[in-house]
């Protein structure tokens, strides 16, 4: 029997997909506003990606990370073009893995090995993976198990909701936590500029900048998790950490980078990567830099650039914002908050109706996510080939659904 993670009462059985749509076993078309857990960036089965993968499959389908190949060289060149130039003049180095959790694991390992410290800090409400130290770095209780991997991983209060106004206090608390729980030295700080599964919270620029300074003062490594919020999804910037004008030492990328194919990346500044490698340990992943995933990622990056997907994310993000403002005003008894940017939004609902609204949306052929500490935030993060017509359809279904449950409250 297949032991799967299932969020719906009745399992959704996918049969095929095309661009922003996914079809169930009865051939019903659903608008995918979760991008299949943010793994689809330019569209399900995008013809250009499919064509590149099919061609590569007939040439070289597998090449482990102990060899070079043309697909990984092409991807590395394309990927590093998207990275901001470093102020210290250093180059970026890329290591390829398979999953986002693995990439977070490696980033944490690099920070610990190069600093000689085990103590790594992340934020409450954060999600970084479901296994090992990546799971331990999560700041959400229902993502964690009581295992040794959670040791030396500390969680700071996140600057979200009302705490957004208390940045100075939160930075002081962070410094106090480092001084009280470490020997005045830390491995690093791992953060999502936009918390994804945690409920779509955009971290204040002042907080991220303040934490970057604190991390450096304790010889730590700054790690940006771009697994959900990168690749132009913010609209204003290609990588979300750029919104805070900070310079990470390590950037972790996965999910949409290869448009549904298993690939993740750890991008580190050259000196840090070289220091890590000086310990003469293996850094090897059998399926890292898989040629099929690499050509899918290269073509995805080409599409993102050539089709001005980042500009589209800005335009559609503004359109969503205007529509959400109406929903929030119309249903204050159900809707606590709506927040986000570009094509990454969260609709925070009163907990007692959130799961039912989530189910009803699916029954009406709209697939969204459900997250947050209390599992009461609808997550709207579609493939970035969405249209305004799709948004209008979604808003109409959301409006009708909210109206139904609002009536029940009366």
Topology:
Layout: E1 14-18, E2 21-24, E3 29-32, H1 35-38, H2 47-57, H3 70-81, E4 92-97, H4 100-115, E5 120-123, H5 132-136, E6 153-156, H6 167-181, E7 188-191, E8 194-195, E9 201-202, H7 205-217, E10 221-225, E11 250-253, E12 264-269, H8 270-277, H9 291-306, H10 309-330, E13 335-341, E14 344-349, H11 351-363, E15 366-367, E16 369-371, E17 377-380, H12 388-409
Structure notes:
By secondary structure, this protein is an alpha/beta fold. The model has no long low-confidence stretch (mean pLDDT 93). The chain is globular. The chain has helices spanning 35-38, 47-57, 70-81, 100-115, 132-136, 167-181, 205-217, 270-277, 291-306, 309-330, 351-363, 388-409; strands spanning 14-18, 21-24, 29-32, 92-97, 120-123, 153-156, 188-191, 194-195, 201-202, 221-225, 250-253, 264-269, 335-341, 344-349, 366-367, 369-371, 377-380. It starts with 13 loop residues before the first strand and ends with a helix. The protein has a seven-stranded mixed beta sheet with strand order 4-12-11-10-7-5-6, with helices on both faces. Strands 1-2-3-15 form a four-stranded mixed beta sheet. The chain has a four-stranded antiparallel beta sheet with strand order 13-14-17-16. α2 packs antiparallel against α9, α10 runs parallel beside α12 and α11 (351-363) crosses α12.
